[in-house]
């Protein structure tokens, strides 16, 4: 289920308290008029008189304004999955990133017939607990993980011929009740639906599901006039298989999305918790199973089919479809041919509806948002993917254009113009399609894949042609080859389906007729490749809290310093052509400013890739007997090289980037809700440099450095906190030590260095006298209503920062300030007037910080 953020309605409202007008009166009137509050059953024939009947898993009867479900007795107690999707939104929600095709809520429900009270109860439960039916503990499992009632319907009629009951369902789809869908709270809007302005748009019934579309309205305000909002919602009620798919359990060394499950049995000493990977039910036909098991490629019983949204511009459809077909080679490694198909709906698909969960659709969203995503609808009992919806925002091509021009413009003439030709953009569309489709197969990002390639191999045409691009996995963010130089003459500079992708599909989708054979095969498959970097899986991390530098977004190769140095060479080449590549007769310099800002952003990206090696720790997913270390500090030489890079490229003012001829025509600029926002180069340079320094000396990085020096020495020389401060200080204050005058940019760097230390120390003691110490969430015992969750700071929940005030970081940061104070007091009368004033300023700041 996708949780949509707190909505920002640009120019109209800011998310916060929502005001709904006239709601209580509307709800009261609706209750009085609701004809379901009757104890007298209607004749089945009366409901059909003047009404319409749609036959399906439930027959849907419409009689004037009333809608009824006819539920067979045979389906009482069966499990259904309620899947809610956005079908239509107004501009304000579109602009905030809420679009057609997004799933916002689902739940498992059952219908329960109560003949005594003439009611149908609807119950929901979280199906994550299992126990053997014959075990004594199963009685306790039933009592301690029971279902909850979310809705009740009076039985309106009975069809004795069909052994079914009829219930009126208006209230759960017209906005009066939120038991089946709560669109406002589940999308972050909040407030209540105005039932007087909401209604059922239409219904459809099919053999395994029904779909009801509704227009649900509300009004919101933020201190001003109320703003009307109407959202069209498609609610699907899908019959789940009586026998769930055989689950496959997660191995953390292969990157799959997963669902948690708890297992109880009488023989245990403790409950077992395992995770089920999410995957499609892909299996050979009964007659092909022997051929499949003997190693022959066979077609699956039910292939995975993606439909292309008819709203997709025609010139992109074949590229999007090709991105789907590219995965066929991966499924062949799992034993299936023609396992994944992309098609456009035709006359044969008479019932086709994008909102129908029977169809997996690549939905094209007309929106200013520049993105794409690939969520799936999953049976939580088994991890089976039932349907997938890729959301493709029209403006994703803006990002593709920017990435290609900045990262490959130096080596690829096709990537230099303001508008690419359709074939060149189409190939980029194909790459994004493949990446998002990979998510719908259950695959997570593999941000560690690109680390498998030697940096200089990315300059080899032979190597890149053989490997197919920039990384062993298209699920990495190894977008384009910024390492290659013009003289390399490469052709394969974009990502493609790689070795890891084929291996991951093989591990997730190989079919077995025996559970013990399956477990043995999967274990051996992972063990076979466990030490091969081409098969390495690196969990995605928060870019602000990266611990393992191998698994970073948008990096290339196994040496961030070398890769970034090559990248900067190409950035300088692109920068030299900003004005002529963006030239259009009579046009403003808007596109020039945008390209200039993109180059600066790419430079900062390289800085962060390098920075995260300092205090970095390789987090290996290990198992008993594999002989690998679970935690490996980045080698001394690599960390020292990383600091040298930062000294040369960041802490030495990069005049090539911030002082150049472009500034005669435009500043760097970025779009904002108020229009293009221009950044003065000096201010931008100062802020970006400050952010690198702040991250370099952040507490958890220093704590990792301090801790790595405490353990076994057989891993070689350790890079220490003192090494970091000495190497950085000796560069930043090099001219001070030599009694030389400082220019504006050198003074800027020294101020940034000192201020970062002062701010960090002040934060350590901020308001501590008014706060009581609390147990960190990571150490609290979870309860049923308050589960401990991942903070999102990193792929692993490793605590490096608890009670920082009594850690060594306070001592080392204050110690560094005292070292600087001694140096500045000694040199305060050296240099020109501006330099001396600067030194006195720093002395005053440091003394105040230390004394406070």
Automatic annotation (TrEMBL):
Keywords: Hydrolase, Metalloprotease, Protease. Pfam families: DUF4953, DUF5117, DUF5118. The keyword Protease applies. Residues 101-285 form the DUF5117 domain. This is Zinc-dependent metalloprotease. GO terms for molecular function: metallopeptidase activity. The keyword Cell wall biogenesis/degradation does not apply. Residues 42-89 form the DUF5118 domain. InterPro entries: DUF5117 (IPR033413), DUF5118 (IPR033428), EcxA_zinc-bd (IPR032534), MetalloPept_cat_dom_sf (IPR024079), Zn_MMP-like_bac (IPR034032). CDD domains: ZnMc_MMP_like_2. Residues 418-738 form the EcxA zinc-binding domain.
